[in-house]
Amino acid sequence: MTLIVQLIQLLVLIGLIMTALAVIYFKDLISAAIALGASSLLLALQFYLLRAPDVAIAEAAVGAGLTTAIFIFAIKSTQRKEEKR
């Protein structure tokens, strides 16, 4: 692999770790769901860089797209505890 591809992979992995930690530390569930979607999108990019485009497309469609949309829809359908006070 070339140096540029290795540098891009390193940056993607650092971003993946940062978004995964953001999912853990966010208190707001919507923010955590969006960070999880971003993490899944970076994972799809990593799969593409590792020359697995079929896995990357599946991860982007299901992980970043569908799962994030379902999480956001489910969170929006619930009632927050803060609103009761």
Secondary structure topology:
Blueprint (H helix, E strand, L loop, with lengths): L2 H23 L3 H21 L3 H25 L8
Explain what the structure shows.
By secondary structure, this protein is an all-alpha fold. Helices cover 81% and strands 0% of the residues. The chain is built from three helices and no strands.
Brief summary:
The chain has 3 helices and no strands. The chain is mainly alpha-helical.
Keywords:
85 residues, mainly alpha, 0% strand, elongated
Tally of DSSP helical segments: 3
Task: State the distance separating the first and last CA atoms.
Answer: 57 Å
Spans where pLDDT lies below 50 across 5 or more residues: none
Order of helix and strand elements from N to C terminus = HHH
The radius of gyration computed from the alpha-carbon positions, rounded to a whole number of angstroms, is 15 Å
- Shape category: elongated
Strand portion: under 5%
Q: Which class of secondary structure composition applies to the elements?
A: mainly alpha
How many extended strands? 0
Largest sheet: none
Mean pLDDT: 91
**Secondary structure: helix percent:** over 70%
